[in-house]
Amino acid sequence: MLGPTNRKRKTRRTKRAQLPVAGWREYVGFPELGIDQLKAKIDTGARSSALHAWNITPIEVDGAQWVAFEVHPLQRNNKVTVHCRAPLTAKRRVTSSSGHSEQRYVIETALRIGDRVYPVELSLTNRDAMGFRLLLGRTAIRGRFLVDAGRSYLVGNSQ
After folding, report:
1. Containing domain of residue 41, as a range?
2. Left (φ > 0), alpha (ψ -120 to 50) or beta: where does 11 sit?
């Protein structure tokens, strides 16, 4: 007979086995921001998620705090620009893996990955020097996907 601890472990294992598997990089979309497709790095070592944005400006919309910003959704292409705005969730100090700390605007928006759409929190920062326009951290994928770090594009095209 299974004890309470073993039953809990077995339930967790069964739930994990039912999760879809994502690769270490995937195509995603942000329908509320007008971004159809963006290449993302899935990083289980990062807690939070970061979107490459520039021209980040706090604005007021109907008395509420929002942020306007621009995104280059295509890797190594600064000609295509999407103008975005979203309600401001927070301003937060974020420390990168290199130890650099900066104050960032944080938004919450819908993420589309494969056939799933759910809300995620994103900090807005300049990721020009990075290989990916989007870094998806643990909090964005926890309980939704397992990650196969040796494979890419397993979830399917986001469109």
Report:
1. 4-148
2. alpha
On whether the CB atoms of residues 33 and 71 are closer than 8 A, the answer is yes
As a whole number of angstroms, the distance between CA 26 and CA 10 comes to 29
Report the Cα 125 to chain-centroid distance in Å: 13
Number of domains in the chain: 1
Q: Which residues contact 91 (CB under 8 A, 6 or more apart)?
A: 103, 104, 105, 106
pLDDT digits (tens, 9 = 90+) for 17-61: 689 999 999 999 999 999 999 999 999 989 999 999 999 999 999
In a domain, 159, yes or no: no
Among residues 137, 136, 46, the alpha carbon closest in space to that of 97 is found at 46
Residue type, 65: Q
82 in Cβ contact with 34 (< 8 Å): yes
pTM for the full predicted model = 0.84
The owner of tokens 């890797």 is 75
Can you give the length of the chain in residues? 159
